[in-house]
Fold these 2 entries.
Entry 1:
Amino acid sequence: MKKELEAFQRLLNIMNDLRAQCPWDKKQTMQSLRHLTIEETYELGDAILSGDLQEVKKELGDLLLHIVFYAKIGSETNDFDIADVANTVCDKLIERHPHIYGDVKVNDEEDVKRNWEKIKLKEGNKSVLGGVPKSLPALVKATRIQDKVAGVGFDWAHIDDVFAKIKEEIDELHAEVKAQKQADIEGEFGDVLFSLINYARFLKVNPEDALERTNRKFINRFQYLERQATAQGKSLKDMSLQEMESYWQEAKEQ
């Protein structure tokens, strides 16, 4: 523990130095840091998906720097400091884990999640969905929405019912495509995606991670196709679909 505390104190000291002496660091505000923090969060996500633990370590450091930076700015206006930030989350964790710090009994993680949502409502949230950030990407937001409502019992009883709902939504989408009503097509397409994300939850698959892995797989295969075209001195536009499909299958085999 001594090593960890010394490292954290070192970071706090460096932050104090930077804020006092560096022209760039002195002019930063919470607003100017916001987009950089979002970027750092995505970089951490990339490192986790790639399985590069050294990169994960580096990106965690970058995010920790941002947390310390915000706390330093908050201390300058006497609104909060890093101790307040740490104590606030400690208090919240203790409050929301009565099965550890109280006398509540739980059987599994689902009980923990249900208790978590009930406690949040007692803390003043008027809606179970009140804590879902408005600016979340739509796919991530749908996942969080479904997690939260399931936590208070609003959920399907059986996974087969969820799959049946997907089929129902696809049929409704197909009907609107036939009717050529663009606004209704968009709505039904959204319903299909929402039901698929719900199915992923039952399969214990994170849909964001699953889609990103598919994105990366597609990129790798398509870039293989591009390399093969270049090796033949061709442009993709000069290749037939059959030629491209042949190289695509080679990429899949590799």
Entry 2:
Amino acid sequence: MRREYTARARIALRNPGPVIAEFCDHMIEHNAEVSEGPAGPVLRLGAVRAAFTRDGEETLVDVAAPDLEGLYLARMSVASHILEFAGNDPPVIAWTGDGGEIVRPPNFQTLEVVGCRTLTPHMRRLTLAAENVARFAGLDALHLNLMIQCPEAVEPQWPHVGSNGVIAWDRPELRPLMRKYTVRSLDLAAGTLDIDFVLHADAGPGSGFAETARVGDRVGVVGPGGGGLVDADWYLFAGDETALPAIARMLEHLPAGARGKAFLEVADAAEVQTLTTTSKVEIEWLFRDGRPPGTTTLLMDAIRGADFPEKDERLYLWAAAEFNAFRAIRAFARQEKHLASHQHLVVSYWRRGVAEDE
């Protein structure tokens, strides 16, 4: 059995130091480890690694992974971020070595809508059949990226892999919009998974897709994406409607002995769902009662009022919400509670008044 797949890119970067440093800093935020190798920085994320060295006026990037999908993701991550951080002077990137046979992204597949139902006035569930639903099992496969086709596209646009390792499209001007969603649940025997969508009055692409989806429709997805749930004795979950599917799935996977609190902010009592957990985590619903989403401090107030455990207990805080709530909760976790990086994950799922593409 082959142990490792490798590839190399030779890049003419005009100002490599700041670009590579920014890339490394960005990846550290995503739990990568960066060390200084004999000829330059070496980045490790799980079993994947990337090493940067100089060869005259060029920068060499060597990536390695235990499988082709890992290699594809490593190449794509390196190339896409270097192109982004290089700004107005993007370099030409071409890879040699393994992975040249990859035509479609290995983490891409098409799903078919096989069921639609309303959970609450503002939450709709789509059940989709997948050829390889097993890849979304486990909490380390919490999310996927949904491809919302451009209305002007006569035929659906599916991704292929460019020579630079980044996703490319036959007609870039008609490429789909990518929207991240949680895999709420899955049925391995039936080969299906569920995705819950928040329905908005000013429906964005994802919400609009969910509202109009019908059995038989097909949609492309890329994933899974990161997730995971850290082992702890006491958990604190917090989120609004957009985080509800993720929190609900994590609650279902908690061990019976786990304790803690889950604060769930929704519009009103009509949005309450029946959630299941064998743990001792207490669920508390917070109602805006007419106040617009993203305008309250309900989550932060609830977190601040929670009775945190003693210091000898393992604690984990997971929160996702609107940008302002995210910023307040993250500051509380880091600056007031002094939680280490492995003790919390706080993310922004949306920002009031700003489209996701912005």
